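In the current project phase, our protein records have gained a structure token line. A sample record follows, to show the layout:
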Amino acid sequence: MRHCIYPGTFDPITYGHLDVLARAAKLFDRVTVAVAHNPGKGPLFSIEKRLEMLRPNVERYPHVTVTSFGGLLVDFAVAQKADAIIRGLRALSDFEFEFNMALMNRHLNNSIETLFVMPNEQFSYCSSTLVKQVARFGGDVDHFVPPNVAAALKGAFARV
């Protein structure tokens, strides 16, 4: 059984993330969406809230699970008995960072492969950061995130 980890901060999850997930779900028997504890990024949503927003959006995939992790990704991947790490590439600007990360992960543990997956071009300019900026100023984010995420963003910025 081929198993991959799809890691990310997912703060919040976007349709671009879900598109990459759909592509990974076609390629692997098992996919673990792994929400990273990354306080250095200053996430808007708690880890629990990000997991809560993700779960209903992956229900259609019986072989996809959602969890969180901290520490080194390759250590998590080994502990999960994964064969690969999936990373989404939206644009060329993502490549250098992701390439360097993949090489470091290979250096740390060469038994885990990293695969780069491109989302549909309609999602190539969309990022969680941009979605949060649009939502912060009251813009419509319904085309970029699932309804439960749009509602969570509205709620988060109503308090700000």
